[in-house]
């Protein structure tokens, strides 16, 4: 199967406002109807054409008769962690599945981690999703629909305030799918998220980082994860194509809106990339840049034989960067008990 899925052109969740306007114009419907339908799909999260109650019965019937549908994904199993992180299995039309995670931020606010591909081609050695290989890209509608269906799984009164493309897949490998989803997510008539509440995380595809910067002013997170090409080559094969110096150049050139910072993610693997010398080299690489460093102690899964570093190692690493004046956070591990933490997403084979 191709990694580029075909778009069902008769699914309203895949259509942008211009496409809907063109369709309705060809049916002789007034232009404002297109915006009404678009808002039903993306703002109100309607799951059927019949739910769009301010449309005329005739228009609803025509949409249905012509074979239009709404909604691209279904929620399967929902797991809730003791820390109230929720992981949703997301079922796709072709039987494939991805996962999305709702992470509590306090104050009834949640951050949602979105998947952009079924599996991932980049083969980072420390990442469970990487072990699955890539089946296919998600369509724009499949990405956006993760947000729409997740709303029903929030606690009473809670909201999804931030979106991070940190679920399954490498978002910049599926560049068009991700840009298409951002167009709906950041559109005031669509999901209405400000660009500053949206973060795209990448393992470092340099040309696509440049294209992203020229296309939408979302936040960028780079998964650096090593301070020498030798170590990065070993844990992230993509580094052989785009080594650290080329990444740093792309980050320095990224057109960051005023008062915003890039995020540099750094997965700490015990004994591999977590020494004091690594922390100092990381500081050297990032000196003078508007960055926030996010340290992520490795979340274990069976197989690669890495270790999660001891807590005092994490603190020591943190202190060195702190002393150099960087803003550093250690990612609080959430959802570990339900395999919903970073790098743990992807269906597990069920025990026989
Ligand atoms: N493909 C993108 C986004 C998804 S991965 C990327 O690589 O950036 C999201 C984050 O999880 C990345 O920073 C990645 O380095 C990190 N990660 C992957 N596997 C991990 C694991 N087992 N433990 C902790 N972090 C992990
Ligand atoms: Fe893919 Fe990101 Fe996992 Fe690497 S860390 S295999 S790029 S999902």
Provide tags for this entry.
single chain; 352 residues; alpha/beta; DNA polymerase, domain 1; 2 domains; ten-stranded mixed beta sheet; two-stranded antiparallel ribbon; 12 strands; 20% strand; binds S-adenosyl-L-homocysteine
Radius of gyration: 21 Å
Distance between the termini: 28 Å
**Number of DSSP strand runs:** 12
Here the CATH topology of the largest domain equals TIM Barrel
What small-molecule ligands were found? Answer: S-adenosyl-L-homocysteine, iron/sulfur cluster
- State the helicity in percent bands: 25-40%
**What class do helices, strands and sheet pairing give?**
alpha/beta
Main sheet record: 10 strands, mixed
Mean pLDDT: 95
Give the ordered list of helices and strands.
HHHEEEEEHEHEHEHEHHHEHEHE
**Which residue ranges are poorly predicted, with pLDDT under 50 across at least 5 consecutive positions?**
none
* CATH level 1 name of the largest domain: Alpha Beta
